[in-house]
Structures
1.
Amino acid sequence: MTSDHRSERVRPATRDAGASAAPDTRLPTTVLSGFLGAGKTTLVNQLLRSAGSARTAIIVNDMSEINIDADLVRSGAAGLSATDETLVELTNGCICCTLREDLLQEVHRLAVLGRFDRLLIESTGISEPLPVAATFEYCDETFASLADVARLDAMVTVVDAVNLTADYDDRALLRDRGQVRDDTDERTIVELLVDQIEFADIIVLNKITTAGAERTAAARRIIRALNPDARLIETDHGAVVPGQILDTGLFSAARARSHPLWFKELNGAADHVPETEEYGISSFCYRARAPFDWQRVRHVLGGGAPCLFDGVLRAKGHFWIAEHPSSVMTFSLAGRLNEIAVGGRWWAAMPRSDWPADGEARARILRHWSADVGDRRQELVFIGTQAMNRDAICAALDRCIAAPAPKARPVAREHLVR
């Protein structure tokens, strides 16, 4: 770590294959996400003060009717002027849902003006980055696609080193803190944090001096357990070198989907092992073909086995049960929050006439095919610290395997939740 408390691990800035050698004139766009109080606005002001002669447009999103963050950007000595910088406020809603159309129109308008060298989008603290990124591929009746005139340069998530460990271990809903998109918003704090961290190309771990070495190390482990690929910058007061954040070319939609460590483990990627070991993180995938007994696996995955998941930071996967063999069951764990749900149907339970016609898609199905059970399988990824007990977890799951006979009693589909 350098004396100014910034450290960085950089993965190569690769662009999508097949990109043209001609200059890309589309407006490069950086999206900033991060939970409330992480320091997004401070980072925006730091970037603007260091922008030099670059002409920057800024879109600031706030859930309230009064855009406090926009006012802070204006008053943050950023030097906004009518000629070189433009600030657009999107208020009283969230750009990942209710204001998505507004975001699309504003980005398009700023891009076609041709006056700006870059665009910064500061999302509201409860915004998920994936829908914002998807906006760039959206087509409507007015123009073919936002991607024709603007390009995503990087998805950046700002993380509060002081509060991440406590928030990650919290079962509270966003509404418990008075922060919801609408009356139907039932998301938890940890679900939002996971979404913001897993989808990032760059993660700014902020407030590290206030957090201290121990909390910073714990936050770093959580980040690397969720996203081992992201460029990690550790700092105070949002102090970064602009080149670490801007004009990096790091965003790739395909690569963004594969950032999460659980995805890598589930798909057999091994190149993440050295880096995760450096941060004290390990991962494994439990695999089996025989079905689980519903009552037993619900007890184990639902938290009924005391201390079994000590040290587990993230778990995700799918499984099948003897009582309802057509259903894909899904499992997700982050912090102390775990969820079991019905995720769809196995292809083995579908007539071949309903299978995808695409040859590559069919090949993917058949890669996991077994003559006995079709594509049904248990695949559960666990990611954790050195305190995670792989042997105990595997043994507990082995005990959930259903006996081959007698035939298990069916369970109604609507009862397949905790």
2.
Amino acid sequence: MKREELANSKIAVCLVGGARQFELTGPSIIEKILKVYPNADLFINSPLDQNSFKLWLLKDAPRLAWIRIFEPKPIAETAPVVRVLTPMHSPNGMQVYYYFNSF
């Protein structure tokens, strides 16, 4: 895609997970995507942990569409959950389930 096409397209930047290295990735996402493409929106789903303070870097970010910081809770390991979301059947299944099942 050419830059002009991207500038006219809707872009969703979706970040899921902890802010462990956000001091490195956050500024480049803001400078190279959000400030360059006027139709880019940022969505974040992150656990509340010792690195959450790093999301403060977004205070001046343009088009922060949605941010959700949640308190992690244990997931009950029922038979269906274990069967479907094990490394054998879905390597990242538990992680994805964990982040999106707590809405």
3.
Amino acid sequence: MSTPSLTRRLWLAFALMAALTLLSTVIGWISLRVISQVEQTNTQALLPTMNMARQLSEASAYELFSAQNLTNADSEGVWLAQGKMLKAQSLKINHLLQALSEQGFNTSAIARQEKEIAQTLGQQGTLVGEILTLRAQQQQLSRQIAEAAESIAAQAHGQANNAATSAGATQAGIYDLIESGKGDQAERALDRLIDIDLEYVNQMNELRVNALRFKQLIVTLKDAQGLSDAEDTDEKLNQLVKILSRRQQRIEDPTVRAQIADALEKINQYTTLVTLFRKENAIRDQLQTLMANNLFQFTASVRKCHSW
């Protein structure tokens, strides 16, 4: 057999290299195609899980938002609405955790946190309900006390006007006595005008002014910030009650004196009102602690969701 020429052998070598290159390309294309299909299959398989993790994260965020709204609820309607929303979000979170657990994910830690959050939110809802009850009591009692103080001011104003009218008549009588040459009687009438009539006018005006001051303090009592402010307001109210009580005893008209005594009994309930505000402040401190704990738990839950 004859030996192939050099040219023929070169052509064969080039043909072999081309075949190897083509084969390598085909193998590479097939490998990439297989890898792509595997990745696509894995991605498709993970999409439901990724979607549930996203829903879990969103549900946790909505739960936190509803918890904040619950804390700021200013009516029973808002309180009930936020409570229902929290319950719905909690049920959704538990359903998603159950579904993820069935797919083999370890959700025990998040489930425990969600249980703790649900318990805390239950306590939070109870405290907000107590605050709303206290506010209703505060508003009713505050209105009654303010009306009593306003009644005292009105009665005192009437007494001051009557005393001023009487003082005017006494003053006119003094002029008549002087013109009639009855100096001794005029002097006694002048003493009575100064010591009794004008003094009584001043006392009734003081009663009126202090009753209005008391009413203003009652209206602004809910705005007292901090323990020191509340104690300062409490002391001012106490001093005003003592002044009103002393001036009530000087009222000459027995009917008016009895009416103002009844109003003073209502005013003395300011101590109950102060207690109600202090209870609300104490509950708000508890709510702040619960909210801080909730925020920590929510953050931990969201981090676990993103770690999947």
